[in-house]
Amino acid sequence: MKENIxxxxxxxxxxxxxxxxxxxxxxxxxxxxxxxxxxxxxxxxNTCAIRDNAEQRVRHRVRELRAAQNRRxxxxxxxxxxxxxxxxxxxxxxxxxxxxxxGPDAYRRLPNLLALVRQGxxxxxxxxxxxxxxxxxxxxxxxxxGISAYISIMRGCQNFCAYCVxxxxxxxxxxRNPETIIREARTLLENGYREVTLLGQNVNSYxxxxxxxxxxxDFPDLMARVAELxxxxxxxxxxxxxxxxxxxxxxxxxAHDNICRCIHLPVQSGSDRMLQLMNxxxxxxxxxxxxxAIRRYLPDCSITTDVIAGFSTETDDDxxxxxxxxxxxxxxxxxxxxxxLREGTFASRHLPDDIPDDIKTARLNEIIAxxxxxxxxxxxxxxxxxxxxxxxxxxxxxxERLFGRNSQNKVLVFDKGDxxxxxxxxxxVTDCTAATLLGELLPQ
Length: 444
Ligand code: SAH
Ligand code: SF4
Ligand code: F3S
Description:
Elements: E1 4-9, H1 13-28, E2 32-33, E3 42-47, H2 52-64, H3 66-71, E4 76-81, H4 82-87, H5 89-94, E5 98-102, H6 110-118, E6 123-125, E7 148-152, E8 154-155, H7 166-170, E9 174-175, H8 178-190, E10 195-199, E11 207-208, E12 217-218, H9 219-227, E13 234-238, H10 247-255, E14 262-264, H11 272-277, H12 284-297, E15 302-309, H13 316-329, E16 333-338, H14 346-350, H15 357-380, E17 386-394, E18 401-405, E19 411-415, E20 424-432, E21 437-441
Parallel strand pairs: 1-2, 1-3, 3-4, 4-5, 5-6, 7-10, 10-13, 14-15, 15-16, 19-21
Antiparallel strand pairs: 8-9, 11-12, 17-18, 17-20, 18-19, 20-21
Helix pairs in contact: 9-10, 13-15
The protein binds S-adenosyl-L-homocysteine, iron/sulfur cluster (SF4) and FE3-S4 cluster.
């Protein structure tokens, strides 16, 4: 009988995309996927190391799984992803019920690793690669609604922002062969999918140079090719590093209606001094120039961001500069974090983590409160507008309502009427909260 694998994922979209590659590798090797820990022979936890609280969550989960292991001694736990790469053998020493660790570039070796573990051994595969992109692997769609899917277009990162662990857990930046990306998107389209999100830590530095004489493919070229597969296939992407956001990309977006009007442009701080310490390689005025360019080429584009409160030596003035920037840009959505020192980063070696936790929290809360107000004002100004919505499914709150997203990636909730998930419908906004637009379905 086949042995069962249960995969649990934490962290960014790239990790969720990786879990689908892992599922493909293991099903090809003869394992079956299951939906609960109770049915599983192996629990695989695909982890994130970006902040300490992400790691603590995983450790808590690993300890919680001891109970299931006490009930069933054959149950084995493996840690995959960024925490496995960061901590390597240490993780197995610290968490005794973990049988193996496997880093993000070593997933092809999972079948060997699992075979070893079945013989009662423990193992670690944590070597990083400069070339691995899993480009020949057709991911098994896990969390899917059958409508929207992720496609990894590159791996790794070498921007070395001073606070960030990703270059150490994911290795060197490398781009995936565009032909395999197009093939994956086409297969999704043929299987009824209507939205793909192209993923990389810094998609704007995507670049593929084929064999001698062939022209290079950059990110705007790739976007155009995916968008031209079919007008009914929406294309999204994440994440854009502001330093590399080109006018060429904005022009390609403007020329294709099915490239969604939403750009995630993490700013991290509104203070030039902080940006320099963070090694972000742009200034506030450069960032605002990119925001202006977005508004010029794509007047209806939403802009979202990431921000860190309480980075090394951040003063009240630096913090106020971040609040000012938020007021100026008026983000549609923001992911807001407290600075968390990560071992091995430039900041951990050279910059003091000197902002007391209560001040970090107070600053974060101030940013969250401001963003809440701005988002609500933004949403209020949407009332009366009509959007094309890709219907995704039943609303979590009511079976009588459906939800979907507009091109700007805002969620709209509306009475279901005759709408069907997986189709496009016109919805008029009638009301809102800070997070959601409420609307009415227009006749077809
Ligand atoms: N590649 C993306 C970001 C990936 S990590 C980019 O450069 O935009 C997602 C977000 O986590 C980052 O944008 C940053 O805001 C946050 N982050 C990263 N390291 C962090 C740390 N040490 N402490 C707090 N937040 C962090
Ligand atoms: Fe981390 Fe910076 Fe790379 Fe983003 S660009 S993953 S923040 S090092
Ligand atoms: Fe976390 Fe790794 Fe993504 S550290 S944010 S899962 S690249």
